[in-house]
Design a protein that fits this description.
Layout: H1 13-35, H2 40-46, E1 50-54, E2 58-63, H3 67-76, E3 78-82, E4 86-92, H4 96-103, E5 116-122, E6 128-136, E7 140-146, H5 147-158, E8 167-170, E9 175-181, H6 185-192, H7 196-201, E10 208-213, E11 216-222, E12 230-236, H8 240-248, E13 251-252, E14 258-259, E15 261-263, H9 266-275, H10 297-300, H11 311-320, E16 325-332, E17 343-347, E18 353-366, E19 372-380, E20 389-394, E21 397-404, H12 415-422
Parallel strand pairs: 3-15
Antiparallel strand pairs: 1-2, 3-9, 4-7, 4-8, 5-6, 6-7, 9-12, 10-11, 11-12, 13-14, 16-19, 16-21, 17-18, 17-20, 18-19, 20-21
């Protein structure tokens, strides 16, 4: 499918295919020399990254070269992610924080320069219209959201502006999105040219900074989706290629000139974010979901602030003490991997299928858990307690699974540990 049919297109497509050809060329040369049978030129000419559709909004890279090496970069190095599926809103005006305080689920009254907040934007029925990351930069707030909902979110929020000094714009066509994940993410950014003070600030969660790398200005925001250090990058679309090249070309001479960062596609990132316990909007929950059903209520919603759109529904559900269903992590007890949409059942009296209680929303094989099959499922709240035994259809078989309190325990090494290891 041509990327021209999608809402958002990566400005890095050609660069990604060049990278794929380079990686294939290196392997082909070695194989040709060893075996004398491979037509390296033909293999290199055909090489390109694997693009996959993200709904109807974008095409994203599934894998650049090898999932195994890309996953390893997240866990041991620094993985560069291209994110055409993400959009950006820009909110300006002296009343911007006060206005958003009345609109969003999170308490942002005290949001100051260099801070971030995670929040939901709801409709009047309390359903999730957008999952947001807000970055206050002084004079403006940049907001990360799905590119599929960016325009509608900007329009809907603007409709509530009356006399306030607030302007809200979807700037996704101007601002582009990249990310770096891994214990060496901050070191990579520093080697590429980000100043040391900004890197030091990013050691803490909930922080964003404006930096210049090479001759490209960008905004870095800490957001640990994979259980290790994660940095979301806002950069002008016109500077995305230059920044990508700067980050990809970083070599650490202390490590014999090895490439510090590696491009990473969706498949490796998806493995790592599931291990890290991060459900995603548009995958594990969506516009039909209530905040209490996401498993993210404590991170996205404040129950001590004033009114906001959809607040009555959220408050009423909170008073009930539980939702009807909720996103929970599960772990299979066999090596069978269920797919998205697989039905989830209780264990019946005869150890076979009992009542249907949910559906799988995402799954993966987890290297951190010895190749165990894990994932997220939306299940009835009554059966969401950690340790609950389930049956899930996987690879044509009825397989046992267990609800998990959390998946792999993944943590970034501290800055001191990282520096010591590099020394």
């Amino acid at each position: 499918m041509s990327s021209a049919s999608f809402l958002a297109e990566s400005p890095l497509r050609t660069r990604h295919d060049e990278f794929a050809r380079g990686e294939i060329a290196r392997r082909a040369a070695v194989t040709s020399e060893a075996r004398g049978t491979l037509d390296a030129a033909q293999v290199v000419h055909a090489a390109q990254v694997a693009w996959i559709p993200w709904g109807g909004s974008a095409e994203i890279v599934g894998v650049f070269d090898r999932v195994e090496t890309e996953y390893a970069a997240i866990r041991r190095g620094a993985a560069l992610c291209d994110k055409p599926q993400r959009g950006t809103l820009e909110i300006r005006g002296r009343d911007r924080v006060e206005f958003l305080q009345r609109m969003l689920t999170q308490d942002i009254k005290g949001l100051s320069v260099g801070q971030t907040r995670e929040s939901f934007w709801l409709n009047r029925k309390g359903r999730i219209e957008a999952d947001l990351l807000l970055c206050e930069l002084g004079g403006r707030i940049l907001v990360d959201c799905s590119v599929a909902v960016a325009a509608n979110t900007a329009t809907a929020l603007s409709n509530f502006v009356f006399a306030e000094d607030v302007s809200i714009a979807d700037v996704s066509s101007r601002e582009y999105r990249l990310a770096v994940h891994g214990p060496e993410a901050l070191h990579l950014l520093e080697l590429a040219g980000a100043n040391a003070h900004s890197i030091e600030l990013l050691n803490a969660p909930g922080v964003c900074v404006e930096v210049t790398i090479g001759d490209v200005s960008c905004v870095l925001a800490r957001a640990d989706a994979c259980g290790v250090c994660g940095i979301e990058i806002f950069v002008a679309r016109s500077g995305a290629l230059s920044l990508w090249n700067s980050l990809l070309s970083v070599h650490d001479l202390l490590q014999g000139g090895q490439r510090r960062g590696r491009p990473c596609g969706w498949h490796a990132f998806n493995m790592a974010r599931i291990e890290g316990g991060t459900p995603l909007f548009e995958i594990d929950f969506g516009p039909a979901s209530l905040p209490h059903e996401t498993g993210l209520i404590e991170r996205r919603v404040s129950f001590t602030k004033g009114c906001y759109l959809g607040q009555e529904v959220v408050a009423r559900m909170n008073s009930l003490g539980k939702p009807k269903q909720i996103v929970r992590a599960f772990r299979m007890m066999s090596d069978a991997l269920p797919i998205e949409g697989a039905q989830v059942f209780l264990v019946g009296a005869d150890e076979s299928f009992g009542d249907e209680v949910g559906v799988v929303t995402s799954s993966t094989m987890s290297p951190m858990l010895g190749a165990a099959c894990v994932g997220f499922a939306t299940v009835r709240y009554a059966h969401s307690t950690a340790g609950t035994q389930l049956i899930i259809g996987a690879e044509g078989r009825a397989e046992r699974a267990t609800v998990q309190a959390e998946l792999a325990s993944v943590q970034s090494p501290s800055p001191t540990q990282s520096q010591g290891e590099r020394a």
